[in-house]
Every structure is written in structure tokens, then in C-alpha cells.
Specification:
The chain is built from five helices and eleven strands; from the N terminus they run αββαβαβββαβαββββ. By secondary structure, it is α/β, with parallel strands linked by helices. The radius of gyration is 17 Å and the shape is globular. The two termini are 13 Å apart.
């Protein structure tokens, strides 16, 4: 079973990352991360997002990667941004890199598939056979309308020893994990810019009344020019699949 080595964190990082270093009842800690503009945009209309957040927000993202077992992105983000998903701006270990790719669209030359010692996993549909280099772990799961349920993804990662999970993007993927009540924390890092138009931070079901809005306990932290909203979602997080009986 993979465990990130825990060492004391200096202030103020313990206040931010301390809640991610324990264990929930089912052995998971799952955090979602969104970097956005002041008006709630994660990219331009053409998909450009490098870089909405400043150095403080970028360092925060890399610190998140350094303390988790695995970082997860959807195939849309992997195709658009071709991210490395490594720890480069802070000291730490590269996490396992996971892409949700039901249709096997991501090419073998993607940067996240680079051989650097970190585990690389592709979560795909059970009836799809990705053509990928040796060493990349293929996780075949059932789909519904060509989508894979967030709970099923987390259960599969749990079975493979990955317990502390970062859902990094994109907005659609983070939204699906949020709607499925599969997040312990949600980190929203807001940059002091107004884009006007662009791709929104979240895609959530509509509500009829303001009383139905999600109101989670929240702490606010300054990250140089950016502001982090740390939302505590543990009260609504559902127990995850196989992990329910493994503790």
C-alpha cells in the first residue's frame, strides 16, 4: 500500500495541508483543485489557461501534488494542456499520474506518460484497448453514456494502493467528483484578474432556491497575489466502494 511519508510542515502550510494528511473512515482523502479568475473562469474560450494563477497559486498546486499518492485529470485537460503533472516548483516526490480516458484518446507521446519513475495509469472503458507503451497501467471500468462514475474510479485507485488523491482538472472532471459527493476538500485558488468570457470553473446541476446552494465550512488563505478558498466537504463525502469494507 502506497503511503506518502509525513514530515512536519512549517507554518502557514500546516493550516492548509494538515487536513489532507490524515485518513477518513474509508481510508481516503480526496481533494479537488480549481484555479480560476475573479469572475470564475478557468480558461479562455479557446481553452488557454497558462497561467491564470500567479507564482503563489502555482506553488500551492505543486505542494498538493507533493503530498498526494496520485493526481487525476480528465482526458480533455490532458489533450488541451499536455501537462507533466510533476513536482517542479517545490521539493517533493512526483505522485502517480492518472488520466480518465474512456475512449483511449490520449496519445502515447503525452507528457504525463514520460518514464520518470512515477506510476502512470489510464482509466478507460472496459471494452476499449488503448495502445500504450509498456509500464502504463490500464484500469478498465464499466461506463454509462461513455462516462465512468467517480466512485468507481476511486475504488479502483484504492485497490491499487492509492489513497490520497488530487482531482486536478479540468473543471468538468472536478465538477463530476463534486456532484458525486466524492471530495473531502475543494481548493479554489482565485487570481486577481477578470477575463469577461471563457470557460467556467464549474458545471453543476441548476438549483431552484438559494437555500439549496452548497454552503461548506471554509477557510481563506493568502497565496501571494492569489486567494485560496479551502472548502471542507467531509460532512457530505460518501464512503467509497471497496474501501468501505477494507478498513
Amino acid at each position: 500500500m502506497v503511503r506518502t511519508k509525513m514530515v512536519p510542515l512549517p507554518p502557514p502550510w500546516d493550516a492548509i495541508f494538515g487536513p489532507l494528511r490524515g485518513d477518513a473512515a474509508d481510508g481516503f482523502i480526496v481533494v479537488g483543485q480549481i484555479g480560476q479568475s475573479l469572475d470564475g473562469r478557468v480558461a479562455t474560450t479557446s481553452g488557454r489557461s497558462h497561467y491564470i494563477n500567479g507564482p503563489g497559486g502555482l506553488a500551492h498546486l505543486h505542494r498538493l501534488r507533493a503530498i498526494v499518492d496520485a493526481v487525476v485529470v480528465g482526458v480533455g485537460t490532458a489533450l488541451t494542456d499536455d501537462p507533466q503533472l510533476t513536482v517542479r516548483h517545490v521539493a517533493g516526490r512526483n505522485p502517480a499520474r492518472v488520466v480518465i480516458d474512456p475512449g483511449a484518446r490520449l496519445p502515447a507521446a503525452a507528457k504525463m506518460f514520460a518514464r520518470d519513475g512515477a506510476r502512470r495509469l489510464v482509466v478507460t472503458a472496459h471494452d476499449v484497448k488503448p495502445q500504450l507503451p509498456a509500464g502504463i497501467e490500464i484500469v478498465e471500468l464499466e461506463t454509462f453514456q461513455r462516462r465512468i462514475a467517480p466512485e468507481a474510479i476511486l475504488s479502483a485507485l484504492h485497490e491499487r494502493g492509492l489513497r490520497r488523491i488530487l482531482i486536478e482538472g479540468g473543471a468538468e472532471t472536478v465538477s463530476r467528483f463534486l456532484v458525486a459527493n466524492c471530495l473531502d476538500r475543494l481548493h479554489v485558488v482565485v487570481a486577481p484578474i477578470i477575463m469577461g468570457t471563457g470557460r467556467p470553473s464549474f458545471n453543476l446541476p441548476p438549483i431552484e432556491r438559494l437555500q439549496d446552494a452548497l454552503r461548506a465550512p471554509m477557510k481563506i488563505h493568502q497565496l501571494d497575489g492569489d486567494v485560496l478558498f479551502d472548502c471542507d466537504l467531509t460532512a457530505q463525502r460518501r464512503a467509497i466502494g471497496a474501501a468501505k469494507t477494507s478498513m
